[in-house]
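To assess whether the prediction recovers the assembly geometry, we first specified each molecular entity separately, as shown.
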Amino acid sequence: MIKRLFIFSMLALMAFIFFNLASNYTESDSLSKLGQYYVEKGPQEIGAPNLVTAVVVTYRGLDTLGEVTVLFISAAGVGLLLRRSRRRQDDKILEKGEPTEKNISTHKAASEIVETATELLLPMIILFGVYVFMNGHLSPGGGFQGGAIIASGTMFLLLALPESHLSRLMIAITESLSGFSYVVVGVLGVIWAGGFLDNRFMELGTYGDLFSAGAIPLIYTFVGLKVGFELSAVLDRFRQEESGSA
Amino acid sequence: MNILTDFPISLIVLCSGFGLILLGLWGMLTQRHLIRIIIGFSLMDTGIHMVMVSIGYVTGGTAPIINDAVPMSEAVNMVVDPVPSALVLTAIVIGLGVTAVMLSFAVRIHKAHKTLMIDKLTESKW
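The predicted structure of the complete assembly is given in tokenized form:
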């Protein structure tokens, strides 16, 4: 009872704070100073039409590196938590006298319509993901969004064809290489331009072209590949966990 | 009385965000099922993102993409603030990572105890 009362009074206090914040809120009719600087100087300095991308990749590039690191650590944590201990696997083999493959194939297969649709749509979904992260500096989208689309393609594959096997080595190699290249591009910015993750060590190119805005398409390609493969690995971990205990 | 001037769109988004934060907090504090607690966390996360985005809104502003539709000379008066959008982009990705780790903890707990009700997980109480 006291606990209930405590929770209720806490929520009421929070609601009171929020009400005060909301009642004093007036919509701003001009940009903040920082936003104004980015909007005025961004297109000339960075050469990217999409200013959110300019902020994420270049002005606040270090934050994005931290973000990629957090995502990497959480993917690694999921891998560690959902790892099937080898000893238990060996026990299972000893008990049953056969490998665990039988456990994995307990999944009910999807219908033929779903399977055919997957084969037809999967390349397009992945292509769309690549499009989103390649055009991150021109249109809404970017590395994280493109990576999420690629991972949704993986989800689709795992739902439709539960037997399909993702090469963990391939995922690990692509992920580490793209993460490493991201940092290398950042260091190249220190050597040839103003600082870490400065995109201007490459030609800015024609404003609005696909290959413009210096290193931003390159950085977003690495981020997109890394995020896509990382999230695919996370999904694969959850899938295997489910089939392991089934 | 014009609803658009009395309740501008960003105020509506702000209030919905606050509502989601409260709802998520309520869920996290009162629910006893681990998955529901995680859902509460996700709701609160989404609410915070909505609040942050609404703060960056400028009356009548459009997406901060400078192209033919938004000429460079007038861009300052036409676009919303790009900084909160960029921060929310970061926050969404980190929220996703945290949710994934929480779910994998839930999977481990279910594997060890065959339950997700936190009342039955007594061994870690002091």
